[in-house]
Amino acid sequence: MDDTLFTSTISEKLQHFSSIFGISEKLSPLVSLIIIVLFSFLVAWIIYRLVRALSHRILKHKEYNFLSRLLEHNVLLKQAHIIPPIIINLLLPLIFKKESPLLHYLTSAVNIYFIIAVTMAVTGIISSIGEAAFSNKKYHDRPIKGFIQITRIIIYIITAIIIISILTNKSPLYLIGGLGAFAAVLMLITKDSIMGFVGGFLLLENDMIRLGDWIEVPQSPINGIVTDITLTTVKVKNFDNTIATIPPYTLINGSFINWRGVNESGGRRISRGYTIELNTIKPYSNELLERAKALDSNFSNHIDNIIDSKESLPETNAGLFRVYAEHYLNNHPRIHKGMLIMVRTLEPTGNGLPIQFYCFTNTTEWPEYEFIQSNIMEHFASIMPLFELFPYQNSSSRDTIISGLFESGFPIGRVTGLPYRTFHN
Fold it and tell me: Which domains, and CATH codes, for the chain?
């Protein structure tokens, strides 16, 4: 059966159907159009129900994250909307003559509906893919939302160009060529949005930030965890529980600190110290050496080995303290042994000789890190007087009063809160 015979047969059937219900020939095309539309949506609904039922049956036997997302966001229903315009376009020539203006307008309207339906279905699939990937532990910290936004924007632009070409009966390539002048004006109006788009794309492409990263932006109050990344904003939850949003191009044009490397390394740096008063530094004595050995049997063996080998032999009480401090850090259970451990003196200042403790904890958790660091610094502060070393501290009004009491002969035993080990029996 050729196309002409098929067309005439369908037309006769539709006219016969109209005559049965007493519909005039003038109204017959309109009724035929309604029948075709209803028929196309009925076919789409049946197919949608069958596919949906099959999907639920599949999910009962095995969990597919992507398929679950399709059902959750009604993407299958959006895909079903592609079917009616295809059927209508196939059947429209059966009820309208080829030269009929109405056929042209109806075909254009159906084509626009088809384009919109395809766009909704494709963007729904892309969003489902993004959500399925985001729920996967492997991709959870990746800024998937930004890439999805880029793809959706591109699809929407292409859709708009195709729809305009259908309405104006012009080629899409013709329209793209005419967008040059319009784009120049658009760039001036939407400069900030375009900069945000470019900045967001660069952040995502170069993997500069991820969800869950701890970032710090100098000279701004932003210091916290990245909770959301889009093409136009980066959302950060600060450690004081405030929420800050910042345009991506601000991060690109300026500078920021990403602490991700700290978490990935497994260790966080301690770099602190005290400034020792210069007048307390002196050659160490045997009495001081024995006092230091009594602190720890392992340290006693360690210092004996150093003395016997005559390598890196400490010559002062400050040097002996540095050996002790380095030995203490090397044997501390919460210090990372695979990273640099060092105790050193820095350039003298007007306040004395700075001594720095440089090491890494074996945890990156902030509360644990601060607890370990505090314990170490407090230990060194309490142990320094045993080496007859005292850190520099600015004098206060209380120091002046105590000094005046001593000079006047006031009994020492009646003065409370004197510095630890200031006096020896």
Answer: 3-142 (no CATH), 204-263 (2.30.30.60), 266-396 (no CATH)
